[in-house]
Each structure stands twice: as C-alpha cells, then as structure tokens.
Amino acid sequence: MKSIKYDSSHEELIDKKGKHLLSRISSKDNKAIIQSALDFSVRMHEGQKRKSGLPYVSHCIDVANILLDWNMDYTTIISALLHDVVEDTDVSLEDIDSEFGSDVAFLVDGVTKIDHIAFRSQEHKQAENFTKLFLSLAKDLRVIIIKFADRLNNMETIEYLSSKKRKEIASETKEIFVPLAHRLGMASLKWRFEDLALKCLDLRSYNSIKKKIEGSSKSNQKILESTIAPVKKELDSYKIQSDISGRYKSISSINRKIQLRNKKFEEIYDLYAIRIVVDKIEECYLALGVIHSIYPPVQDRFKDFIATPKTNGYQSIHTTVMTKDNRLTEVQIRTKEMDYTAEVGVAAHWLYKGNSEMDSFDEQVPWLRDLLAMMSSDNSDPEELIELLKIDMFEDEIFIFTPKGDLIKLPVESTPLDFAFAIHSELGFSCVRAKVNKKLVPLSYKLNNGDIVEMETSKSQKPNSGWLSFVKTSKASHAIGKYLRKIEVEESIKIGNQLLEKGLRKLKIYDRIDEIKKGHEELGYKSFNDLLSDLGRGGSTIKDIVIKIFPDVKTTPSKVSHDKAFIDSARSDFEGINLDGVKNLVVDYGRCCNPIPGDNVIGYISRGRGLIVHRHSCSNLSSLSESNDRIVSVNWDTKKNISFKAKIHITCIDSAGVLNEIADIISKNKVNIVDVKTDVTEGGLANIWIICKIGDLSQLRMIMKAILKLRKVDSVERVHS
C-alpha cells in the first residue's frame, strides 16, 4: 500500500486494513483504481477520528470490505471508500466526478446527508435524508446497499457513543433499516440489524437469551443431528445431493416469540429450524415428500414460496413437522440459488459489466414504484412517509386473487380497500362494497390467504376519514390521506376567503385586497391560496395579516374575535360542564372538536366566555392563544351525571330496515337520539349522520362497535365538528 502521512499510532492499522482490502481484488486494473480511491480517502480524512479513537478512514475501509463480502461490483467498493468525504471534508461532488467518474459521484451523493438546509426539527431532517436516499436508490439500488454496509459497521462499533445516541441510532435501525433489508430480501442482514438493535435497546433480554442458547446448544445439536440423519440417508438413496443444516433462530426473533406468546425461553418449541439445500427445483418437492414420509406434517403450517415468491423475491418451501422426540420443527427447502438469494437479497440479482446499466429496479423490487409515487406526489410530507414505511414494510404477506385469477400480494390483515388501492388508486376511491368468495362483506373485512375479491364501485363515492382506521397498506393510507387533505385545504380556502373579505369590509379597506394577494410572500406564504388556507384553519388571523401589510390601519381585538365566531357559527350547540381543578369560571367546551368524557382535554381561558375545553388534538387549539399562560390543565369530573352530544357518521348499504337496526342498537344502550340525517348515493350506498346524547367516550365506542358489526354497515366514525 502506498505510504501516506497520518497519525503515527494508526499508520500500521490503516496499512493492514488497506492491504487486506486490496488482497481481495483480483483484477490488476480494478486494484489500481481502488488503490487510488483508498489513497484519496486516507488523505482527505487525515486527522479525523471516530469516537473509539481509531482513524475515521478505518470505517470507510471496513464498509468497503463488507460490500466485498456481498460480492458487490468495484464501482460500489470505490464509492464506499469515498462515501463520507463530501459530508465530512472540503471535497465536492464535482471533485469526485472529475477524479472517479459520474457513477461514483452519484452513489456518494446518494448516501450523503443533507446538512445545508435549516430543518424545523431533527425528525424532519431525518425524514428528508431518508427521502433523498430512497429517491436515489430508485435510479441505482447500490445506494441503499452502501448505506446498509455503513449502518452495519456503525452498529457494530456503537458502544463508543453516548447512551442517548446509541438508543437513537438503534431505534432508527430497527424501525427503518430492518424492514427495508427485509423488503430487499437481505435476510442475514435483517437479522443482524435486529440483534444489534436489541442489544442496544434491551441488553438484559439479549444477554439472557444468548446465554440460554449457548447453554443448550450441545444438547440441541444432538437432537438436530438425530433428526437430520434419516432425512439425509433417504435423500442419498435417491441420489440427491443435499446440504442439510440446523440452527437456532436469531436472538431477536426468539425474544419476539417470548414477548408475543408470554412464555419462557424453555417453553418456546420452535427455537431452531432445519434447512435443506438442493440443486434443482424438482428436488425441492422430492425432498418435501421425503420429509413428510419420515415425520408427520402439521396442518396449516405449509407454505410454498417457490410457486408464489414473496414480494422481496424470497423463494423456499416451508413446512412444520413433528419429530420423533415430539418437537415441532420448521423445515425450509430451497435450491442453492434460492438460498444465496435469501441471504444476500437483491444484490444477488445484479450483474454489472463495465458501465452497463443495472436491470430495471421495477423488475427487482416492484414495491418501490408505489413508494416513489408517494414521495414524488404534491405536498408529500417526508415525516409521514417514514411513518408509513414503519407500518407497511415489515408485514408478512397473504396472496389474494382477482376474479380473473390475477395474484395480488398484500400484508396480513389487509382489507378489500387495500386490495382495490393495490390495483389502482381510482378503483380504491370509488369502492362502495366488496365481495369475498362471492359473499358481500364490508370494506373493513380482514382478508385471508387465497380469497377471491371483487370490488363494486360508484362514481359518486368519495373516501372518508373512517377508511384510515382500517386500511393496512401505506399505498392506501397515503392515497386516502392525500385526498382528505386536499378536501380540507379546499374547505379552508373557502372559509379563509370569506373571513378575509368580511374582515377587510369591517375595516373599510376591502378595496386594498389586491395588495394582500400580491404580498403573500411577505407574510411567508408560497401562494395566496396558502394564506387563505391558513386563515381558514385558524393558523393566522385578519389582525396578523393587516398589521404586516397595512401598518397604518388600526385594528382591535374585538374585531378579530368575530372571525373565530364566524368559523364556529355552523358548529353544533354546547352545554356547560364542570371539571375538576377549576373554580369560579364559566365552563364550555369547544364547538370545533366537541370533547366528551374520556377524551384527552386541555383548557383555554378565553375573554368573555370563561374556560373553553378542547381535545388535545384539536387543530384550532394552537391558534387560540398568543401565550401559554392562558392554557390550563383540566380533568373530567366523572362523578356528575351529565350527558353530552356526540355525532357519528355511518356508511352502509341502502336497504329497508337498516336505519331501524342502527336505532335499535342505540336504544338498547339507553342512549337518546337527538337528530338524524340521511343521504343516499347513486351506487346504492347510504350515509347516515346521527347526533345522540351519551355519557362518555367508552359508551360511544361501544355503540359504534355494535353498529359496525351489522352486516350491511361498512364504516362508523365519530365526527368531531
């Protein structure tokens, strides 16, 4: 290795690591360019150290070696050596492009964090960085592979960081990197990430399980050998070359079984699995027959992922058998190619030749299409997208069929609505009901493996917020949320426009409205509609706008207070309630959110109306006070026998008697109905709004749950306004 001046105490380490890396490179030309990249990285990171005290460049070399373990191409190795130089040194992407080419520059840029932008929070910064990463990997999946190797090395050396930082990085690894590795089919990496995260987040459980595995390994090894022996002998008799092994499942997966099943380590039966690796697909099925001839299979524990591969490309036959010692044991059967793919994932599919382009990522990981569509959509929120990833990425799959026999893969517990959105968003938006195996079911019905689903639609159908409570996939959640936000914005713009016109007329400056339209940027809004929307939501007031645009115009608080009254004018009536901890104040509750006992609430001391109680999640709460001294903590006084108005929205099939059934449920719960409104759509769907008087939130939930069980009811939701 070329000698480069560095801290004398670390020259030997860098030299050793560098030589080891270069010794693994077969091609002379490739070795020369990697040598150049290594020298460049050493030079640029000179003097920089990690928290461990080791030179920073040692991390870059370690990442490159990990990628060599994964058989990545040399462009990726070079990018790994340089992956932090733009972020941590004065080197620019243009410098990288000039020295090592555009491909390397792109990969380095893909893994480089965004630090030149002022973010509103650390969470938003994290979300924006992940969004940048995902958009980069859409063009070249090697971006995420480099990031995986970087994160793996960081997790393996995490003990040198502070306790707080360790927990932050471990949580991020568990919530983002684990499911992403799973989706990309990198099983070994997924389990490694999970184990390392568990070690940081719950060291006691990690050490306990590790100790018990080590303590029982000898006895279990003998059991595995005795179980495998007759299988190996039978396969040999058929002249089938096979590699049969048994191993414990990962520490994190065992811990998850302990937590979910509420059992001790000794009570978990499926602690290990047997894997049979053969040469050909047909031999997989022959091996399956051999296994079942020796050990009886467990019904409903058979899965053929060869015939129907998982979304991440995973292929294998899974079966659970009862061994001679009465142990339930999982057996996995796959070919050598399938085994390699299961461990390495998407990286196993890549064949690079010089500067040739990678196969379409759509073909390798089709789920990325939906993710990228969400990210590129208008007004997409990076933080929301990350939350959707956490929900959607790590789910087990079920296989659902269209009436024509097309296969749709969905997460477990998906609904007909998820099915519809998986096919096309427009189909999801127009759904009114579904048929599963030719039987009518509500849109919230939980689908099972092998179900045949048919959707019925109506042009007049519109999504509602109740759908968000039961959809499972991120595609459905995002599409519905986006639609509802659009509607909310449109309504806010209408209200804001009315407020603005009304306020300006009262101040007798309506003729100057064009100045506000032209001055929206001065107020911090991208457009005039953004200003109106914020005004309509209560985020700003006429007073705020007028003071900034027209400093010569006098305003009074009384005039502004009418704006809020205007927004509330269409809200329902309220009645006074008494709350613990509040004395000598008139108490009302907010018309914007209509809180009831059981809701988390907070009090706002208003001028003229006393104490106004709002739900913690009320969107208008933040706009009600200019200082925190008017916000007080309050609690419900459950001792008082007072009823409260609550409004629910029911979507159901339009048929005779359905309203009577709903009313009967409400009556049986000893609840009075105050008002009922119905609306029937062209698609045979009925919307019913009911205002009733209830005692608390638990009573309301009980009623809603009972109504939802009716066969003809699709959804039930509480309406807060």
What characteristics describe this protein?
five-stranded mixed beta sheet; 15% strand; alpha+beta; four-stranded mixed beta sheet; Hypothetical protein af1432; 721 residues; Beta Polymerase, domain 2; 27 helices
In short:
By secondary structure, this protein is of the alpha+beta class. The longest helix is centred in the first third of the chain and has 35 residues, at 203-237.
Task: Write a structural description.
With 721 residues, this protein is of the alpha+beta class. It folds into five domains: 8-201, Hypothetical protein af1432; 204-347, Beta Polymerase, domain 2; 482-568; 579-636, no CATH class; 644-719, ACT domain (Alpha-Beta Plaits, 2-Layer Sandwich), CATH 3.30.70.260. The chain is 48% helix and 15% strand. It contains 27 helices and 20 strands. A hairpin with a 5-residue loop joins strand 4 (317-322) and strand 5. The longest helix has 35 residues, at 203-237. The protein is globular. The relative contact order is 0.05.
